[in-house]
Amino acid sequence: MNWWRDAVIYQVYPRSFADSDGDGIGDLLGLVDKLDYLANTLGVDAIWLCPVYPSPQIDFGYDISDHTAIDPVFGTDADFAELITAAHARGLKLIIDFVPNHTSDQHPWFQESRAGKDNPKRDWYVWADPRPDGTPPSNWTSEQGGSTWEFDQATGQYYLHSFHRTQPDVNWRNPELRAAMLKVLRHWLDRGVDGFRIDVLHLIAKDPAFTDNPPRPLPAPNGTDLQHPDYDTQWHLHDRLHPDLDGYITEIRALLDEYTARTGQERIAIGEVEAMPWTAATRFLGAQLNGVHFTFNFDFLETRWHAKALRAAIGAQEAALPPDAWPNYVLSNHDRPRLPTRLGPEHTRVAALLLLTLRGTPTLYYGEELGLSDLPIPRERWQDPLGRDQVRGPMPWTSTEHTTWLPANAHYLANTVESQLADPHSTLTLYCRLLALRRANPALHRGDYQALAGLPEHCLAYLRGTPAHTLAVLLNLGPDPATITLPRPGNALLSTSGTAPDGTRSEFQVPAHAGLIVALTRR
Predict the structure, then answer these.
(1) How far does Cα 331 stand from its chain's mean position?
(2) pLDDT surpassing 50 at residue 18
């Protein structure tokens, strides 16, 4: 049990990962073909698979029209069964997306709901009358711009959509809707999945009175530096995080625990929640740790890339988590700029060391191990309305250019799995070494975390320890070499910049934008 505490999770965006039939779109059998790479070459422990459900693909799979089927573009139900069997045979866990906040407007549930006010499924979605002046029921804004309310001419009411207007929000206050969502979970648990990443979990409970959100002063004159400028003009106090949320989360967890107890196969829930202070984020874990097993740490992903800021963010999570709760770290995903684009390519290797040596469960985004940057796509060629195509480029397996749903560029074709495996100094080789070292050293996956003080300005260092072994992780995020003195001598095991220095010593010079792992001598 608690396999997830030791695991490294690898996120697969299926459209872009591996194409088995040559149609330019990645699929389930393509993923099956690459399981040996994930399990044995790279050495991860679990796969998080983004949606493969039937969908009109307005939001590229997060607008679901059937929760319990496989979209033919990705394969068949039999292909999914083969994926589970093949993954488990290699010791890999399979986590899939559960999208509880909304569906596609093409989902049969919504087709019934919008058919009329007296339809039995009307209350499965969030409907409301206009205000007396005909305007939407509240001022709530969408992450994709504009109001979250869409007027339905046929019934004279508005329906709520936290995202695109084709993604109506379901109503978790309706017990029949909740039962239907839990039935979806049961379907996939019966198929053998090991857990769920729960999409936008913070959104599923809203204020039933539709109270207006207060305005939020923009931190910049025009807000153009914000990820969602229109959305970020409000404090979102009433369209999320309603107190009912806690009961919904424990209901989901109880179902997972039921399957764990009955089958002996531990099933987990990972919450995707917006970036927030850890004092607030611990709510999702449940008062008795009977909520999600952990949440993705977007607060860390959005932390300024500076040693002092990162040290504070790590310390905040460590201090806020209750006893027996577990941290998580993530630096990339399918919605955010890739790490070299966001931070600069010179930080790629030291970021890998940070991610894979902190206390907690790290999550890698496919291609992160290759040091891939965003794929430059002109706005006029965007397929995704928010331009997220740029972080979802094709996984470059070989240097032979293939036709894919998004075109590869020279950067992608110069950083293939094939070429990097042949290069002992490549980013992929570094990730393989780090993952092997992590797996071999209990101090790195279950050890305590202790930050070191008195460091040069751009440096971050910490100890990871068990009673038997202590490792020191030294990171220099600055542009110049720096010297770090450890509390006792040690031997360098790994350097991100080349050969680790020889000999037992207490003082180590760390090159610019580089890091070391040092095994300390016993006291």
Answers:
(1) 9
(2) yes
Non-local (6+) Cβ contacts of 278 within 8 A are 299, 316, 317, 319, 320, 321
Helix (H, G, I), strand (E, B) or coil at 109: helix
Q: Outline where DSSP puts E strands in 92-231.
A: 93-98, 127-128, 149-152, 157-160, 195-198
Cβ atoms 332, 348 nearer than 8 A: no
Residues noted as catalytic: 199, 258
In the DSSP assignment, the letter for residue 82 is H
| Residues whose CB falls within 8 Å of the CB of residue 369, separated by 6 or more in sequence, listed in order | 42, 352, 427, 428, 431, 432
Q: Which residues of 199-223 are buried (b: 16+ CB within 10 A; e: fewer)?
A: bbbbbbbbbeebeebeeeeeeeeeb
pTM value? 0.96
Q: What is the pLDDT of residues 171-226, one digit of tens each?
A: 999 999 999 999 999 999 999 999 999 999 999 999 999 999 999 986 654 434 44
Domains and CATH numbers, the chain: 3-101+175-210+246-439 (3.20.20.80), 108-160 (3.90.400.10), 448-520 (2.60.40.1180)
Q: Tens of pLDDT along 240-296?
A: 999 999 999 999 999 999 999 999 999 999 999 988 888 899 999 999 999 999 999
